[in-house]
Amino acid sequence: MAQKQTDTISRLITEISKLPGIGRKSAQRIAYHLLTHPASNAENLAQAIIDAKGSAKICSICANLSHSDPCPICASEKRDHTLVCVVQDAKDIITIERSHCFQGVYHVLGGSISPLQGIGARDLRIDKLIARVRQGAKEVIFATALTPDGENTAVYISGLLAPLNVKMSRIATGMPVGSDLEYTDEETVAGAITSRRQL
Amino acid sequence: MAQKQTDTISRLITEISKLPGIGRKSAQRIAYHLLTHPASNAENLAQAIIDAKGSAKICSICANLSHSDPCPICASEKRDHTLVCVVQDAKDIITIERSHCFQGVYHVLGGSISPLQGIGARDLRIDKLIARVRQGAKEVIFATALTPDGENTAVYISGLLAPLNVKMSRIATGMPVGSDLEYTDEETVAGAITSRRQL
Prior knowledge:
The structure is a homodimer.
Chain A: H1 2-17, H2 24-36, H3 39-55, E1 57-58, E2 65-66, H4 72-75, E3 80-87, H5 90-98, E4 104-108, H6 126-134, E5 139-142, H7 148-161, E6 167-170, H8 186-194
Parallel strand pairs in A: 3-4, 3-5, 5-6
Antiparallel strand pairs in A: 1-2
């Protein structure tokens, strides 16, 4: 009995440490927080996980995560469905939507081509993107990460789309707004100088 | 309907961001991880929270968190019940137990005296500690944090225990094992030099 119940605490720590960005020490801290703070906290979290998991749907068009299929963006008549922004993950959509600068639709790849992590082109939703472009996209914006894997993914897919005669673009590299030259890495500075705008 | 279900995702993000050390961005990343990875992950976590919350008990003697009351340490005949180690939180017990260097019992205060956070002596389990010492402790080791709050708490409680004629000690300050002078803060170095051991 004693042993069995200790295990529920260890199991909670193990489950928490499986979350992205959470190490063993943080998992332990979180588990003790959940177990020693008022009951409502832990149960609210457990319920929120169950509810969200039960109601979240992956859009069959763009693979966005939302409440409905198709997602509100794909279903909206106000969006420009000929302008497709390609992102790695569904959470990238939130980031772009918050900028309020994009009125097109999205296409979630589900990652980037990463030989080191064993992720190849076949693991991504590239065929669906090609099908969407064939169905009438005018421009594809590659908003994959500004990392080697993200760059390679954009280059690889743009090669596949080239014969389809669609306009393609890549989000700009440059200095983050509000940043200081002193604290910016050289590659970013180099990109910012190379891509300088005429005033 | 659409709005309602988006809200389950937002609510999950909100609940996750209430956890210690998790900001809004990390909470978003964790929520998307839970919702886009195989179903078992999220449900295992929810179930682990419910199970642990349901079976975890706070020891009525030392306030340790475990499966039983009294906890296995307080219930053990192998431990020295006259040697009491005072810690701030139940999770500190795990850390000390892992060092395998302590065979006494613990007393969890439930925090440290912190005027800035509005935590006073009355909020801590100090009366219970005094009662335990009266019942026959021979030595009290203060293992509260090596921070101003942790130090003040140890000094305050040692003042209360002084009339009870019990031996009192404080864990040693010094250089962490494996650390380098170059990367150690001055106060730690000062403590290490002051508390130097004769060879």
